[in-house]
């Protein structure tokens, strides 16, 4: 069996765990995600790795190095998905890391440093509105009091969801590795955008990661009969929300040269009906970029718009920040090494920022970090039609293997 056939089998085994009819639904701390994590751990055990689950639910497989006491080299990503997502987001990074281990075992390569694979818990924000919880816990930045009461769409709190997985939110600080010496962390991921495909590049070498600030905004007006309420006597919460959304788009377009983007991804009309003027609407807003100054300008304009809509439409508007994260820069030494590897292997590559958040942005707090992108067909992600050709994934695995071997040598420097 060649490497491609072996990888395809591994990839398909992971993606058999799915609760969705359309696309992939394997949401954090659900039965499907937990079963998938257990399957991944069995696969790690089959490769001779020591396995454990930390107090946040991160699954970790460790391959010991030749020299005792050296700090580990880490690689990995996540197995959870959004609702009705695709097969590649996150899964590519975890399966690629396991394929690297398989190759090392097959070749009989014994590294100086230990190597660990990590499947991070709850990378996606789709269930509770907060992302990368597993890597936050590992980096010592998990704020349990801020997130414990967050609820999913069924009313289950994060604290309850953890408990159902035999995890306790008050023990999560023990997942922190801030007191540990770690050599480096590497994550392979699909691009989730169209740039590599459009420029015919096979590898994206990521220089920095944009970070989001997210808000839940409630717009409260007066529900009234659609037929008997004159247009000039309405307090329409939906129109207020729509004005906010359109203004947000306008200012984000003005900031696009800085790579800043803004999205209204949720709009929920309370007790909505065709013949009722909407009385209460909730929207959820995501603003992100690598420039804090540009992101702040969008946020300032959002706040000004809220005040304008409140006054002109006589609405009550309540804005609550869900999360605010800082953009990060990745290791220049690692990106330079990745460039060298791509040039030596004659692989077309592009250095680029990441507009999406990844576990790598939290791991920067622990150690030098590298992030490798492989192309996404049509730029699709978080979508059932998400696709990356396995030949492209294998090129990414080749780069990942080489850089992991490089940094797992005792005399390698960062």
From TrEMBL:
Cofactor notes: Binds 2 Zn(2+) ions per subunit.
Sequence positions that bind Zn(2+) 2: 89, 124, 382
Cofactor(s) this protein cannot do without: Zn(2+)
Gene Ontology molecular-function annotations: hydrolase activity, acting on carbon-nitrogen (but not peptide) bonds, in linear amidines; metal ion binding
Pfam annotation, one family: Peptidase_M20
Binding site for allantoate: 214, 275, 288
Annotated ranges, domain Peptidase M20 dimerisation: 214-307
Entry keywords, A to Z: Hydrolase, Metal-binding, Zinc
Domain of life where this protein originates: Bacteria
Signal peptide start and end residues: none
Residues annotated to bind Zn(2+) 1: 78, 89, 189
Database matches in PANTHER family: ALLANTOATE AMIDOHYDROLASE, ALLANTOATE DEIMINASE-RELATED
NCBIfam families the record matches: hydantase (TIGR01879), PRK09290.1-5 (NF006771)
Family as reported in the entry's similarity comment: Belongs to the peptidase M20 family.
Name under which the protein is recorded: Zn-dependent hydrolase
